[in-house]
């Protein structure tokens, strides 16, 4: 099995039992790795009792998985998954960095983590030597503090263990901040300073397992491939095509912080009350001139280098440092909160990352709370003395800290916009769900659909098996490069979606063959393999539980706000047409093999070899 090390590491934190696990070639060919394999593992182990599994209980499984193309296709990533505390389904949340490369070089294709440690702990993996270490000294620490402490500590251990090796490069670390420790449902799994696997809430899963961090250093090579000369040639081809993408290389997605609002009318402004703004103070050139201190920063093997490092150089937030906010954070922690200056956006992004919160999910939540304050539904007293006015970065930062600590109103808000809306409705006896811009418990990405000018379409969020995930949207045709079935390929491969923008899809299939030797092509993928993974994700999402379940007839829908007309900008008056949306949904259901109620069809599941899933559906949903 080329491209794979051939084994996975399974760790039971409750018993401290550690063992190697293997999967046969047929399973790996069908589910690849990353998101696909995570879905298969979760189905096999938990599927028949899914609705009773508490995502924040010890029975949930934390999966940290590579794919066969990880380390070879330019742009290395790792996929984090499990039962999501947000959607109660399965989300394949990927994150860039060196962690997957170190893990493969240590001899493992992934980690399967079960149970709960008796005390705060972290895993330290060096090839075949696995340790479960005490993490009490970093429990409660923020992101940068945690990373600094564990990096120093791990390098000292490596130097003692291998005294003749010399100076060790820092190990790769996945970690959580205070939000994850406190089981905030929108907590991220973090790496480096501020990279985040945010969708899904898997930082809370780590916290529920008393797992502060995963540290790995591998000393071996990447696994063998089928045709190394072809792989080297393909790396060169993909890289050369990526080098030509000047905008993404120069500015990253941050170039969109002004343009998506000003040109497309698709950016959240004050909790999506508007999607247009013309604030040139928020243009990417202002970020470039005023806060950037490093440009062209890329993770392992990345030819796009879209990351930047930003630092506030003057004013009340002077000294704040972190990744320059990408488009999603510029939107959700900027315009969505009525903030239009680079310094304040950098400050909030750095704080949110250090707390271990997802910038998208938390930004959405803060905007929801901001509108409730604007409308007099939440008061200064409710918010513990915070006057939550649009544009006040310090006020929103104070509320974010309450959320991460589950303090006061933060304990309600820590469950995300949807669950918080349910509780606030009871508390205030007012309908507030109309202000929660979410999909099946998860905030949508910062890409509106009312103007029709950005890339999502009317069904994109409503029908996605990953709920509000803007990187995995329902799309017609289903073999389009933006469709969920195409993204399943990248998330299972596991490599960066951004490095696929320039190369043709044929190059990706060539890569699979050169690495694995498997002749997988678009016909097999879109008609069989991707559909198989999609069906299992859909079934687990519909099984849901234990606190929330989703009815497709009710919940396969857009947030209420998207049926309101845009109030300003060149596309003022545009909104989602409900009748057209229903027709689009019906078409999508048919294309992916779901019945008129959004339930996977029995004959489709049997054709895909999912008879066991069909049986569960028959017993519990149909």
Describe this structure in words.
With 622 residues, the chain is an alpha+beta fold. The protein has 23 helices and 17 strands. It has helices at 25-31, 34-46, 99-105, 143-161, 178-181, 202-208, 228-243, 246-251, 256-262, 284-290, 327-332, 342-355, 359-374, 393-405, 409-413, 416-428, 484-493, 505-516, 522-543, 552-555, 578-592, 602-607, 611-620; strands at residues 8-12, 17-21, 62-65, 77-81, 93-96, 110-114, 121-126, 129-134, 172-175, 189-191, 195-197, 211-217, 292-297, 307-311, 321-323, 438-439, 442-443. The chain is globular.
Note the topology:
Elements: E1 8-12, E2 17-21, H1 25-31, H2 34-46, E3 62-65, E4 77-81, E5 93-96, H3 99-105, E6 110-114, E7 121-126, E8 129-134, H4 143-161, E9 172-175, H5 178-181, E10 189-191, E11 195-197, H6 202-208, E12 211-217, H7 228-243, H8 246-251, H9 256-262, H10 284-290, E13 292-297, E14 307-311, E15 321-323, H11 327-332, H12 342-355, H13 359-374, H14 393-405, H15 409-413, H16 416-428, E16 438-439, E17 442-443, H17 484-493, H18 505-516, H19 522-543, H20 552-555, H21 578-592, H22 602-607, H23 611-620
Parallel strand pairs: 1-6, 7-12
Antiparallel strand pairs: 1-2, 3-4, 3-6, 4-5, 7-8, 9-10, 9-12, 10-11, 13-14, 14-15, 16-17
Q: In angstroms, what is the radius of gyration?
A: 23 Å
* General form: globular
Continuous helix count:
23
Q: Give the proportion of residues in helices.
A: 25-40%
Query: Quick one: biggest sheet?
Result: 6 strands, mixed
Number of strands: 17
Mean pLDDT: 96
Strand content: 5-15%
In terms of structural class, how would the helical and strand content be classed?
alpha+beta
Give the uncertain stretches in residue-range form: none
Distance between the termini: 39 Å
Strand order, biggest sheet?
A: 2-1-6-3-4-5
């Amino acid at each position: 099995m080329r491209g794979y090390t051939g084994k996975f590491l399974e760790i039971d934190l409750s018993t401290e039992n550690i063992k190697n696990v293997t999967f046969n070639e047929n399973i790996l060919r069908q589910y690849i790795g990353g998101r696909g394999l995570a879905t298969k593992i979760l189905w096999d182990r938990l599927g028949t009792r899914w609705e009773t599994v508490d995502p924040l209980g010890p029975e949930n499984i934390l999966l940290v998985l590579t794919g066969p193309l990880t380390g070879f296709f330019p742009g290395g990533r790792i996929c984090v998954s499990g039962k999501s505390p947000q959607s109660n389904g399965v989300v394949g949340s990927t994150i860039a960095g060196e962690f997957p490369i170190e893990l493969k070089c240590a001899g493992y294709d992934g980690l399967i983590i079960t149970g709960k440690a008796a005390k705060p702990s972290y895993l330290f993996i060096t090839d075949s030597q696995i340790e479960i270490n005490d993490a009490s000294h970093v429990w409660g620490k923020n992101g940068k503090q945690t990373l600094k402490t564990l990096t120093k500590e791990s390098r000292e251990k490596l130097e003692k263990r291998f005294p003749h090796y010399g100076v060790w490069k820092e190990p790769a670390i996945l970690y959580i901040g205070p939000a994850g420790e406190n089981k905030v449902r929108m907590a991220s799994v973090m790496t480096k300073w501020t990279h985040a696997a945010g969708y899904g809430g898997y930082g809370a899963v780590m916290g529920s397992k008393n797992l502060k961090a995963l540290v790995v250093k591998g000393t071996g090579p990447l696994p063998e491939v089928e045709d190394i000369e072809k792989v080297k040639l393909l790396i060169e081809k993909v890289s050369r095509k990526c080098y030509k993408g000047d905008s993404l290389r120069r500015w990253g997605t941050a170039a969109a912080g002004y343009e998506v609002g000003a040109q497309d009318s698709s950016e959240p402004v004050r909790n999506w009350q508007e999607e247009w703004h013309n604030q040139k103070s928020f243009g990417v050139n202002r970020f470039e001139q005023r806060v950037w201190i490093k440009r062209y920063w890329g993770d392992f093997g990345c030819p796009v280098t879209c990351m930047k490092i930003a630092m506030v150089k003057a004013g009340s937030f002077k000294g704040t440092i972190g990744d320059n906010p990408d488009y999603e954070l510029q939107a959700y922690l900027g315009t969505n909160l009525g903030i239009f200056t680079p310094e304040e956006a950098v400050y909030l992004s750095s704080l949110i990352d250090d707390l271990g919160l997802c910038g998208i999910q938390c930004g959405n939540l803060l905007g929801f709370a901001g509108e409730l304050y604007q409308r007099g539904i939440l008061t200064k007293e409710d918010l513990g003395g915070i006057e939550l006015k649009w544009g006040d970065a310090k006020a929103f930062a104070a509320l974010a800290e309450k959320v991460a600590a589950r303090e006061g109103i933060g304990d309600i808000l820590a469950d995300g916009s949807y669950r918080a809306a349910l509780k606030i409705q009871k508390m205030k006896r007012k309908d507030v769900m109309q202000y929660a811009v979410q999909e099946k418990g998860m905030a949508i990405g910062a890409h509106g659909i009312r103007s029709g000018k950005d890339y999502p379409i009317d069904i994109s969020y409503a029908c996605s098996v990953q709920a509000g995930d803007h990187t995995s949207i329902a799309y017609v045709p289903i073999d389009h490069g933006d469709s969920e079935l195409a993204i399943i390929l990248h998330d299972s491969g596991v490599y960066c979606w951004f490095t696929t923008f320039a190369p043709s899809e044929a190059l990706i299939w060539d890569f699979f063959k050169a690495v694995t030797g498997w002749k997988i092509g678009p016909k097999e993928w879109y008609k069989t393999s991707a559909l198989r993974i999609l069906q299992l994700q859909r079934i687990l999402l519909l099984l849901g539980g234990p606190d929330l379940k989703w009815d497709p007839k009710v919940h396969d829908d857009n947030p209420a706000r998207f049926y309101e007309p845009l109030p300003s900008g060149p596309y003022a008056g545009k909104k989602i047409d409900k009748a057209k949306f229903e027709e689009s949904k019906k078409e999508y259901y048919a294309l992916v093999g779901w019945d008129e109620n959004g339930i996977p069809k029995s004959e489709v599941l049997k054709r895909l070899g999912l008879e066991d899933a069909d049986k569960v559906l028959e017993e519990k949903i149909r």
